[in-house]
Q: What sequence folds into this?
């Protein structure tokens, strides 16, 4: 029986042996071969679907460890700034642990599915007039002033927990060569964590490869690509609408060491990839999760030699149910017809 990623990978994670682990049986998420994309674009693509985690995103990987360590350190409350997924995960693990959870969110541009999770898990939510970067600034000030445990990716245990996804990818590929890992980049914690995980697992298991890290951002929030702070980041992919990534230096190191790249894609390219993932592969993700697939399509069209005949894993960070309004706002529902056989047959045109 799966007992969560801390129990599975305890040799790689620092937890007191007498400490009760705060877990919702996170991790062990599927790696799905993307047959349609692989055949069309002449590479072998796998989808690491972390939207299958308990609260529907990859954030649960880091949160199980961050909250467990908060208890170990006798913390009374946890706090985070969030565009959505972190707030949902923190609230769930806070509820599980009995710790008070404080969440600062932008009052607009947060997906309702994520906000509803934080509400129902019982977090104390404070919306502010401002973006994520302003929310994080406030949270850091509060953490300095009061005895609170910050559970954003500035918390090193978040990165430690998230690195387990790299272990799973290596296990699921049965240590076959992985050429490229492609993932969305917002605050740049996940690309940092994956690279850390691959290096540690490589050393432990004597695997003779390390993948190139390909980080993709939305064009309106491409702080890593443009190498500057974006004061007013914009994109329909709310999870990566971040203009000043706190893990910038570590992420740059990961890309440079792995001989990878940072690249940006437009909102329209994200929307196209989002639709193709669902309609061709049967995998429904939130818009930000479609970013690496949009990036791979872009490279296939303009720089095919970068990805031709390569084995690639694209990290899908969040479940599509997180942001249902995106679909309802961008796709028109068919009009209702009369409730009889003839009316339905006319529409079907069989």
A:
């Amino acid at each position: 029986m799966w007992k969560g990623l801390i129990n599975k990978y305890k040799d790689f994670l620092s937890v007191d042996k007498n400490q009760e682990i705060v877990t919702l049986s996170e991790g062990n998420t599927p790696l799905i071969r993307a047959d349609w994309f692989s055949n069309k674009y002449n590479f072998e693509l796998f989808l690491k679907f972390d939207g299958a985690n308990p609260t529907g995103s990859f954030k649960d990987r880091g949160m199980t460890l961050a909250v467990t360590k908060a208890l170990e350190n006798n913390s009374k409350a946890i706090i985070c700034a969030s565009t959505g997924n972190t707030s949902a995960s923190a609230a769930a693990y806070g509820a599980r642990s009995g710790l008070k959870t404080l969440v600062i969110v932008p009052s607009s541009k947060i997906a309702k599915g994520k906000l509803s999770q934080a509400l129902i898990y019982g977090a104390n939510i404070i919306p502010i007039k401002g973006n994520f970067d302003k929310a994080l600034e406030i949270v850091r000030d509060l953490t300095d002033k009061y005895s609170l445990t910050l559970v954003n990716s500035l918390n090193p245990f978040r990165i430690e927990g998230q690195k387990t996804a790299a272990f799973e990818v290596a296990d699921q590929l049965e240590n076959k060569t992985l050429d490229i890992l492609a993932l969305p980049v917002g605050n740049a914690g996940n690309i940092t964590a994956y690279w850390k995980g691959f290096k540690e697992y490589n050393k432990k298991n004597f695997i003779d490869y390390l993948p190139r890290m390909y980080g993709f951002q939305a064009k309106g929030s491409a702080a890593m690509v443009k190498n500057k702070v974006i004061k007013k980041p914009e994109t329909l992919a709310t999870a990566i609408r971040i203009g000043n990534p706190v893990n910038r230096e570590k992420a740059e190191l990961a890309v440079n060491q792995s001989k990878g790249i940072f690249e940006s894609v437009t909102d329209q390219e994200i929307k196209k990839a989002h639709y193709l993932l669902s309609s061709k592969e049967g995998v429904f993700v939130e818009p930000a999760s479609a970013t690496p697939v949009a990036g791979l399509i872009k490279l296939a069209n303009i720089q095919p030699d970068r990805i031709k005949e390569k084995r690639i894993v694209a990290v899908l960070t969040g479940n599509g149910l997180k942001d249902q309004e995106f679909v309802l706002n961008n796709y028109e529902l068919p009009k209702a017809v009369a409730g009889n056989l003839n009316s339905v047959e006319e529409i079907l045109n069989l």
